[in-house]
Amino acid sequence: MQIYQIVILTLLVMFALLAIKVPVAVSLAGAGGLGLILLQGFGYASNTLGAAPFTTSASFTLTIIPMFILMGMLAVRANIAENVFAVANHFVRRAPGGLGVATVMACAGFAAVSGSSIGTAATMAKLSVDQMRAKGYPASLATGIVAIAGTLGVMIPPSTFLVLYAVLAGESVSQMLAAGIIPGLLSALGYITYIMVVGQRTIRRDAGGDLSEAVDDARAELREKRKSAGAGRAARAMSTDTTVRTAEPRTAAVKAAIAPRPSLRALPWRGVVYIAILFTVVLGGMYSGIFTATESAAMGALAALIILVVENRRQGVRRILRAFRISLLDTAETTAMVFFIVIGSAILSTFFVAAGVTRAISDWVGALPFPPMLVMALLLLCLVPMGMFLESMSILVITVPILYPVAMEFGFDGIWLGILIVKLIEIGMVTPPVGILTFVVAGTTGVKPETVFRGVLPLVGIDFVTTTILFLFPAITLFLPSLVAR
């Protein structure tokens, strides 16, 4: 069998396994193992499969991943997101689309300490979607805002995706994390601009005024009907019953709409303080030279544990231990999933190298009669359709071994490439038919997935604009990494 036939067969097997919902790690490892058997024989394949789990995972740099995951799990249990959302909502409530803007701001802040897009989206969906709908946001826009803002978790450091890319590509972890700050904030600014300019029109058209005013109008109308019908007991009973039926479904919405605003002193500022502490411990400690990247992650997890204890001290030791236990279990589950995928990716990458796939692609791309920037743009755009059908982390581990050598051949910067790859993976996290974050938001809020997709697609356009800016102006991405030592 020819090499190109083996490569095609291996890829077909991998996509077939993914299509029938075989776990990503098993699909990657199974396809890579089959390719190695067909290419080099069973002996070589068995040696590779036996050594890959240890050689791939026995990297000290990878210890940063479980520490960041643990920090995020502890931050979720410490209710940081709720406090940050309350503060953000207080300051932007009078701005156009104020609740939507507050949601994006809270997602950006929570992403800075959780590093998890799924955790960010699920938490904020519980907090903000009902409030936005009570203020007249269409269900599609309210859920779409949460889903797209949840993607900030994979860009704003600490981010497991950025760390994993740095490990796969051999780039500096500290520089990679620094590179995610400006693109993450730029993305958040794009979402906020859309909500304030375009989304506000939808909110006004659907809301038709404040909900408390709507209920007052309904009550006034009922009083007029009562007056014209007379003061009989039957009329009064019917009017009262109608009033209750009219107001009852909106009771929670009206309370949310007319609830008194807390004073500045009464706001839960501790959430903002906690974020500042964690951000300072992790990034400040790393870039000041006090900690290494792995040490800063461990210190961040320790700081998050202290915050968890402080936040739950009044609930008793049992509550603290229970929250800590759940955080450890969630961390173990997520870490095992990540490392399993990394091992499967290593097996598939070994096959690609043995078959000469990466070198063949580099030679083919280099021979194309197009400018390097155009070729790189076309290769990166291939990630978009992949994101419509594959899970986000599998896209990262499959494409980095292929795209990184090509980018190096053209002389592009590996940090810049990593941000673009992660940015396009963000888009894949909310685009149909996979769009994992849209299903997370739909499951959390009870809104149909197609409704969430309808609301998120215009915001995906904002992401494409941001990605284009980052692609055309690499200095935006590379400014902060240039200030950080490798």
- E-strand count: 0
Q: Strand percentage, roughly?
A: under 5%
Provide the number of structural domains: 2
Describe the largest sheet: none
* Helix proportion: over 70%
- Report the end-to-end length measured between terminal Cα atoms: 45 Å
Q: What structural class do the secondary elements suggest?
A: mainly alpha
Give the SSE string.
Answer: HHHHHHHHHHHHHHHHHHHHHHHHH
Count, helices? 25
Shape: globular
Q: Which runs of at least 5 residues are low in confidence (pLDDT < 50)?
A: 205-218, 231-259
| Mean model confidence by pLDDT | 80
Mind telling me the C-alpha Rg?
Answer: 26 Å
Structural account:
- Helix 6 packs parallel to helix 8.
- The protein starts with a helix and ends with a helix.
- It is mainly α and 486 residues long.
- The protein has two domains: 158 residues, no CATH class; 209 residues, no CATH class.
- The radius of gyration is 26 Å and the shape is globular.
- It is 80% helix and 0% strand.
